[in-house]
Amino acid sequence: MKPFTVCEANAAAIVRDNIDTDVIVRIERIAQLKRGQFAPWAFETWRYLPDGSENAEFILNREPFRQARILISGANFGCGSSREMAVWALEEFGLRCIIAESYGDIFFNNCLQNGVLPVTLGRAGIEDLAKAALAGERVKVDLQACVISTASIGDIAFSFPEIPRQALLLGQDDIQQTLAIGGEIDGFERRDRQARPWAYPAAT
Predict the structure, then answer these.
(1) Could you give the dihedral angle defined by the CA atoms of residues 97, 103, 107 and 112, in that order, rounded to the nearest 10 degrees?
(2) Which of 52, 72, 102, 194 makes the best surface tag, with the fewest CB within 10 Å?
(3) Count of alpha carbons within 13 angstroms of residue 106, beta-carbon side
(4) Is residue 1 included in any domain, yes or no?
């Protein structure tokens, strides 16, 4: 998993509440595609018109937001079904960070497993960032310092749970975190085997 330390880039603002995973990637695409093929289909129903052409009004089809690496949104982002492919689609499109008022719980955790930083911020901060981003200001997200900044706003501090913060900084998913403390796990098992031998029946 790619580590996340600092992302400084254009940010696309789609400040709507309750954007669900079916909007992020349609169920039909999940049945048809493999990982690495989802980028063209992120926000498909908003990016394309019925004839398949691009919707020029949608922000991710406009410059400089085609190259956005940060998405600013509203409350309950990523609600709905628990499809990890929604995060795959956003990550494959190029998004490294989402800044939203709140998240669907499963979507939030799927972000952590795929190197996408889900920052939670109050509505006033969301609206200020959206205005700055739409005016063309670049947004900087520093996970080491837990600070978001733009030229006009300055610094906005955010909080993030320490264990997943360290995992993102190191680029570790749950399996990699477990392997990193393999020595500690082995030591615990040796001590526990001595203290509770009855819990470790001999192999037959």
Answers:
(1) 50
(2) 52
(3) 10
(4) no
What region does 107 belong to: left with phi over 0, alpha with psi -120 to 50, or beta?
alpha
- Pair type for strands 139-142 and 147-150: antiparallel
Residue 111's domain comprises 6-199
How many domains is the chain partitioned into structurally?
A: 1
Q: What is the pLDDT of residues 156-200, one digit of tens each?
A: 999 999 999 999 999 987 777 777 777 888 888 889 988 998 888
Q: pLDDT, tens digit, for every residue of 74-132?
A: 999 999 988 999 999 999 999 999 999 999 999 999 999 999 999 999 999 999 999 99
- Helix, strand or coil, per DSSP, at residue 4: coil
CA–CA dist 148, 152 (Å, integer): 12
Tell me the one-letter amino acid at 79: C
Residue 100 lies in a domain: yes
Residue 25 covered by a domain: yes
